[in-house]
Amino acid sequence: MDTAPLPPACSYLETIGNTPMVKLDRCVPAASKQATILCKLEMQNPGGSLKDRIALNMIEEAEARGDITPGKTTIIDFTSGNTGIGYAMVAAAKGYKCIVIMPKVRPMLERYLICRQFGAEVHLFNPSLGAPGALKYVKDQLAANPHYWWPNQLGNPDNPAVHERTTGPEIWKQAGGAVDYFIHGIGTGGCVAGVGKYLKSVNPKCRVIALEPTEARVHTGASPKPHGVVGWAPGVHSQFLDGFGKAPEELSDAPRGVVDEWGHVATSEAVATCLQVTSAEGMMVGPSSGAAIKYAFDVAARPEAKGSTIVVVLPSHGIRYVAHPLWAAVNAEANEALPPGEAPCSDKEQPILLWASEEYKKA
């Protein structure tokens, strides 16, 4: 492996962005190999996800406006976790206090741990109340604490702006100036809106495909329902995508704004694709990445996609989802191999080998 010259030393936060792009190979179904599928590895941001970009940009733009001051301002927002980690990391690096609000559900475990390790406080809200409940809690906190500042990732224009300014141009350059399809899931909708706008400015024929869980197709008029694609579908329509504020019956699958196609992937499909990609490519991805790759496979197999270039953003690493059902099988195995509370073996008369995972699989 050749080693490129290292760039000059920089600050930690300056390592956000300029993530690599890779081509999928061994995991791609035969029918989908007629197209090229490229993946933007946003898990290689320093905080581990795509959301590092928006956390840094929203905070630095607020600083430039004079809205917030290190040592005086407390940053507060609700999140499914990755944006919260971005806030906590940037706040630690810049000297802000930070409160991250997340739903009280087991898949938030790693996010809770990471935010606390950065020094942020974590408030867990009642998940049955959804985004409206979390929003009310935030507004109550803001009213009671004048020094609190709410970035509002779901409505702050500095969210899509950073993707139009950085993520989009990076993708275009890394793809060699040829992107026919851009596929990404809807969390806040900022990445779809920002990257989509940029790519259409350089290639008006680029098709932008926005994805939701099959169980919660809010942007085409369905009601939000529980799903396991963490990071997607917070239960409200994105303010950055056309259709915000419309009644459900006014929405449809028809193209709107920057989005040409409103796709969907079931949680079970997302999990299955994660495992497939991890074992075939050695690339460990999370549920939203697996869902986007699954849809990319489907698009790549379409007759009209022959010879095209398809770009998918992979928002975060699979290691961040150990408490998710994605890891259920290996979690069960690990708890058998290393039971909680078990003391290390101190009997030297016992055999050298105490456990072999292949034997567990046979059982």
UniProtKB/TrEMBL annotation:
Keywords: Amino-acid biosynthesis, Cysteine biosynthesis, Pyridoxal phosphate, Transferase. Gene3D superfamilies: 3.40.50.1100. It holds the Pfam family PALP. One of its GO terms (molecular function) is transferase activity. One of its GO terms (biological process) is cysteine biosynthetic process. Residues 14-315 form the Tryptophan synthase beta chain-like PALP domain. Its cofactor is pyridoxal 5'-phosphate. It comes from the Eukaryota. Belongs to the cysteine synthase/cystathionine beta-synthase family. This is Tryptophan synthase beta chain-like PALP domain-containing protein.
